[in-house]
Amino acid sequence: MSTVTLTVTGMTCGHCAASVREEVSSIDGVTGVDVDVSSGRLTIDSVRELDAQVIRNAVEEAGYQLAG
Amino acid sequence: MSTVTLTVTGMTCGHCAASVREEVSSIDGVTGVDVDVSSGRLTIDSVRELDAQVIRNAVEEAGYQLAG
To answer: Which Pfam family would be a valid example here (chains A, B) (predicted)?
Structure first.
């Protein structure tokens, strides 16, 4: 099991959070996703450590960016 | 034909606009809906004058409020 916490920029509402959650949840190996709109915090639980680029791609697919 | 312009409060992004557009489009007689997120402006074209409460209900169903 692995947990990673990242910051997403550009989310403004619950619809935005749902879009990010949906895309990240579809990554192979992901078992849980938590998104906090106000802070931009994205927490991902997975069965193994995830490739950073795969996460970035999923967030961008949803229409947002990872900070940093 | 009738056109009415109202102001919706609480929309923050394109997802919000899409929710409002979807609900208002489903009102019987509506032929066109335009939503501008930044101003909150909602413009509705319809085959006849619409009942104000019906519009209000649709906006609230989407999760937002009409101003005033």
So the answer is: HMA
